[in-house]
Specification:
single chain; Arp2/3 complex 21 kDa subunit ARPC3; two-stranded antiparallel ribbon; 66% helix; mainly alpha
Amino acid sequence: MLTPKILPGVAIDFTSLPVVIAGFFGGAIVGLITGLIAGIIPGIYFGFIGGILGIMGPISLMLGKAISGFTIGFLSRRIKIKKHPNIGAFLVVILGFIPEAIWITVLFLYIVPFLAFQGILASKAATLYPLILVPVLSKATFEFISFALITSGLSGNAYFIQSVNLKFNLGYYTEVKTK
């Protein structure tokens, strides 16, 4: 699930891909709920197994993924580029990542060091987390660019859209015509 590792506690993972797809096609609430669920296992990993965040691991990852799922779902209902749905999808996913990037920045620069200094986190090494902010944001940006490309491909695929609408009645539409 979590490979390859960039630094201890930093690994490329695609656990946000279902959140992005659910938010984009299902809307804000579907994205939010999917984000909360999708953040549990990586949160446990980065909190207790492969990281030093402790209980902040699951809390921070669940919140971050929920924020991006909600934002992508919200934007997907408001930004429509009918002539080129792929471009609209790409923009929605990239713009939807911005609030999560802000959350990551606040978390690593302020919340984690504060909790470490207060003795709430188990390890004083958590005070070093501001130093890994750039690698974490870099890997997250890479992931979200990948998710944007995948989502833009799906948004232009009439068969995928038709299947999603038939199975889940989500109301997402596309201007792409089938032959």
